[in-house]
Amino acid sequence: MKIDAQGVYYKDLNNQIRSAVASGADKIELVNVNGQYFIGDGINRPVTITIKGVPGNDLGAFMNGATIVVRDNAQDNIGNTMNAGKVVVHGHAGDVLGYGMRGGRIHILKDVGYRVGIHMKSYQENKPVLIAGGKAGDFFGEYMAGGVLVLLGMFSDDPAKPLHGFCFGTGMHGGTIFVRGGVDEAKLSREVGVFELTGEDRQELEGYVKEYCRDLKLDAKEILRENFVKVLPRSKRPYGNLYCPMPR
Amino acid sequence: MKNNLKPTHRFEKDISNCGLTGFISKSGKLVEGSVIIKSIALMHDRGNGLGGGFAAYGIYPDFKEFFAFHLMYESGMALQLTEEYLAEHFLIDHHEEIPTRRNAAITNPPAFRRYFVKPLETAEYKEAREFQNMTDEDIIVTHVMRINNEIEGSFVVSSGKNMGAFKGVGYPEEIADFFRLEDYSGHIWTAHNRFPTNTPGWWGGAHPFTLLDWSIVHNGEISSYGINKRYLEMYGYLCTMLTDTEVVAYMLDLLIRKHGLSPELASMALAAPFWDMIDSLPEDERQLLTAIRQVYGSGLLNGPFAILFASNEGLIGLNDRVKLRPLVCATKDDFVYMASEEAAIREICSQPDRVWSPRGGEPVIARLNPGVI
Questions:
Q1: How far, in Å, CA of A234 to CA of A169, rounded?
Q2: Does the predicted TM-score (pTM) go above 0.90?
Q3: Nearest Cα to Cα of residue B253 among B159, B337, B165, B167
Q4: Is A242 among the domain residues?
Q5: ipTM for this model
Q6: How far is it, in rounded angstroms, from Cα B356 to Cα B336?
Q7: Is the CB of B359 less than 8 angstroms away from the CB of A138?
Q8: Catalytic residue numbers of B, as ranges
Q9: Would you say residue A246 lies in a domain?
Q10: pLDDT tens profile A52-92
């Protein structure tokens, strides 16, 4: 099913998408999208929505099982509190990706902005994974509580840009960040430490990267050829002693 | 303090944010107003109808030697007093009503007139030039401050050469319709869609804020407004627009025009890096930034912001140092675009050569090519 979004107001577009989902569509193609907010929000069925054009903010928020494929760049706040499903972006994406995400996958081909993976969390079998193929801005993994962030730094439009920004992992107290080629330790927050991958980690990472490569038609071997490091929080309660010492 | 008989503001609140967009043709190609309207209208929902505005450069080529004063009048008395003031201090080459179109969305608009002026060689002018070392620009700034402060119900909306600001209470596309912006062509345009957070939504409080040919549109909150305002008062800048963003326009005038800082250095003063970052820089940069933070501590803008500032020199985009508001830039041929959302750029430039998000505190500077104006 194809929907032409040219000049369509976001509420009308989202109503059209929801009624297509309700009537049982498996595949929805949106063409001429430009800036419409909230696409795919709260969708509970495993439908695939393909987007041509640049979707607006809060793409895939509260999404629960659908797949969104963006053929172009995307904006801010993708996958806010997303529960399950997948967002694939064949370009770059903006700030605050995967905010409070608690399941599913976000696969971005190129650069990502500030505060990516902020307060991602996981619970039992729900383990969100966000992979950025390009470079990242400041506050990567801010207040991260669970799940997995992977930063590759390979597919950037800006070769001069550093792999990641300042305040990496600020407030991080759970989850794992894998970074291809190593991190700039001067830009890490005090709450995190850098570790080598175990065999188990490597296996886990390989699984994520292979899925990412299937979605974006990339060569997993090329990505996995380089060494990765693992960034973990030093404490589960980084601010426990902020105001007064807490009993251990 | 001015006392207005009629309330000039509404106090409703609403869930939204602010939106801004702007572009420059570095070679000075003139672009019709309809283009910027299309870009800002795409971000309609970032505002709430309590403020919209535009700044346009290159729109008055026939009067480019004159300061173009856009005046807003809340009463006939304000108009009369201001015109007397202007006649006393200025040679007025031409003046007229700013053409407007009534539309249903715009309620209670004030009156708008424009004046193309040069300072008159009065005794006061000669005193200022010869004994107080003031330039024509300094004298214009003094007059703007006096009109805004001393004439009740009269506000200078803009005062630069070959440029003008058009702003008011409404969504930006409604304000554009009201001011017939499709009739203007300029080589730099900026636009703002306002969601007033903690200051009133009134005609003077809409963006852009201007002084001479500086114009500022801003998304965010200047939490340091009080410190910035008091600092500016020491240099004769008086805040009258009841909105935090006003300080940015005056601060840039002070830093760049009066103190001779480059736009890069001025940006470092407004969005200075944190001390621990400064301490990690090479020695010369560390010394430079330390000096800027020490000298311009009261010029630092605290709080979240993305701003576009334009002048007859070019267009600059700047984020706060931790990037708490969005800003996306793009280039296409000799055009540079800056907006809150990439979609607002794509709406008027579907295939940019390059699209990127600048780092927090890192200005994006697009200058007009030499000799364009």
A1: 11
A2: yes
A3: B159
A4: no
A5: 0.95
A6: 11
A7: yes
A8: 18
A9: no
A10: 999 999 999 999 999 999 999 999 999 999 999 999 999 99
